[in-house]
């Protein structure tokens, strides 16, 4: 009888998700709530993951959570700031996660520019290495959309004033985002992505969720080859890949995919 009970306990344990803590990192102009609004959080909760809170630059907004449960945090980053600044903020947040959950494994999940920020944090070091990094539609090799946004807002007076009047605030938002947009232009010698993509990365599991778009070339913002971490010089051949013909924004599908990936870890 004791052997039967022990066998049942071991069987139930083997069905649990092994990634104890997931950290959700939003992209450019996103927020910690992007995961909730897109339906990703609902998919995680539906599989037993518990929201543990939101981490902001000012500290943690905790949520009650069972200490033994798999849990996830959403972070709030200054997404219009340069990638290096965002990575510094993220590293502090990951330090807080490590303090709250010593010995538990962590998986970083970054959408769009959030995936690049997560990689920068890993390269900078000073944090406990996570079990894995999952990126969703991230511009690891850059995107021409960043170049276009910079060009469209590089205007002298009075053209800049006229554009401000007719853009419903978007013109000012883009101009205030120049720092991060400059970091996300296609990699070339001398820019941030060229440097980042040639730095040693920790030996963890890397997974690229790639938006192929209707003809396999990528979504409306980031080409498919830029989303694939196998094309990063320092990670060539080291990333797993999942392909989906959907748009750039977070959506319920991402939640279902993440549940499957986390269950494998």
Task: Provide a short characterization of the protein structure.
Helix content is 40%, strand content 17%. It has 265 residues and is α/β, with parallel strands linked by helices.
Topology:
Layout: H1 2-14, E1 21-25, H2 34-38, H3 40-46, E2 50-56, E3 59-62, E4 71-75, H4 83-100, E5 106-111, H5 113-124, E6 132-136, H6 144-152, H7 159-166, H8 170-175, H9 178-183, H10 192-196, E7 205-211, H11 224-227, E8 239-244, H12 252-264
Overview of this structure, please?
- This protein has 265 residues and is an alpha/beta fold.
- It has one domain (18-142, 186-264): Rossmann fold (3-Layer(aba) Sandwich).
- Helix content is 40%, strand content 17%.
- It has helices spanning 2-14, 34-38, 40-46, 83-100, 113-124, 144-152, 159-166, 170-175, 178-183, 192-196, 224-227, 252-264; strands at residues 21-25, 50-56, 59-62, 71-75, 106-111, 132-136, 205-211, 239-244.
Biggest sheet descriptor: 8 strands, mixed
Q: What is the C-alpha radius of gyration, as a whole number of Å? A: 20 Å
Number of helices: 12
Order of helices and strands: HEHHEEEHEHEHHHHHEHEH
Say how many strands there are: 8
**Into which percent range does the helicity of residues fall?**
40-55%
Low-confidence residue ranges: 1-19
The CATH architecture designation is 3-Layer(aba) Sandwich
Class computed from helices, strands and strand pairing: alpha/beta
State the strand order across the main sheet. Answer: 3-2-4-1-5-6-7-8
Give the averaged pLDDT, no decimals: 91
Determine the strand fraction and express it as a percent band: 15-25%
